[in-house]
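At this stage, I wrote out one protein's amino acid sequence and its backbone structure tokens, and that material follows here:
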Amino acid sequence: MENSVVESVTIGTSVGAADFSFIGLIVKADPVVQTVLLLLFASSIWSWAIIFEKWLRLRRINQQTDAFEDRFWSGGSLDDLYEHEGQTPAEPMSSIFSAAMREWRRSLDSPALRHAAGSVRNRIERSMETTMGRETSRLERYMIFLATAGSVAPFVGLFGTVWGIMNSFRSIAATQNTTLVTVAPGIAEALFATALGLAVAIPAVVAYNKLGQDIARYAARLDDFTSEFSAILSRRIEESE
């Protein structure tokens, strides 16, 4: 009875003395598990950097777009607005406006195009669609990393879990000892890898869905503006014929 108590106290003391902190688990982990943990940690940092950059950028762009739409629909001259916005467009909508006005002015300067209304319309619409596609692609940049991290990170963590458990079984086989002292470090590494994988995946998935919806909503806003502005320029083309 006394030996059992002494053994329990010894085991409890040994386990309690083990370092299960974040740094301790990484330092004492197997090299493969260390690689997994560091990879997941780096992925987490990069994911959060993308999330904050996209969130701040979309917030700023929406504010700038609101201001541009106020100026556009204020009833002022489109030529004056182009002189103000055309050289240095601040956000995607003003870039689309500048591309269309640039093409419109080229058509006015060309006698051949001036009498080809259908060709002018096609060139203006194509210019706006190209600009909108380019600006949308810029907004979507790095979103694929969030999607990849959200789907792959749990499996990377699971790989670290499996490897840590394998190390625990190797320790048991090598020492012929099934006490908690032998098994605990490997299990701790394994569970930590799983937890870190989920910590990377969950924010990445949530952010990808939220940011994806925001980008799609803004793209629809650009599409509506493109259609409306195309109609305005079409009326101008018909009036100039």
Residues 1-17 have pLDDT under 50 and may be disordered.
